[in-house]
Amino acid sequence: MAFARIVFLMYHELELPGRKLVQSEPGYVRYILQVDTFHKQMQSLKNSGVRGLSVSEALLYPSEPSVCITFDDGCETDLLTAAPILRELGFRATFYLTAGFLGTTGYLTSDQVRQMDALGFEIGCHSMTHPYLSDLSDTELSREIVDAKLHIEQILGRPIGHFSCPGGRYDQRTLETARRAGFRTVATAGFAPIPPVPTLMNWAA
Questions:
Q1: Domain 7-204, CATH 2.40.30.10 — does that match?
Q2: What's the rounded Cα separation, in Å, for the pair 169 and 99?
């Protein structure tokens, strides 16, 4: 069976005029996009007849021209700016949340996560505290993957199925832990299919 190739667009916090970013380090800021630029990118996709999908929708390999839209970290701008733009254009997306950041300044609160879910956006996990997973002990790795998943699931009241590796870094232990935790996919910065947990490629937008 021939499958359609779908590009995964990876976004982070969107910059709003007069609003302070949650972090100022160069390694973080390089991923930041101004909200007007994001809107223009999404509108361009819409005008070209391209659909915006969540990870679960992308795994169905639709025949129509499509991209999968993802956001890492769980910044408040996910709800304030990204969600309205995506809904305006009829696009779906997956938002990977850093569980331990929720409720802190600049990040989504539990109530806002539930709002995102009610709007029809897919919620995923981006670890507990955003470390490089391949550097961790087995105990630390379990906290970052298993405990983070449970934390988000408690907020939503139902299971989640997709995990994104901070910095795109992972090892075989990461994949095995994610599989045992019940994740369907692990998203990284590279491509390497490792059944039964498909590993997805993300391109920074």
A1: no
A2: 18
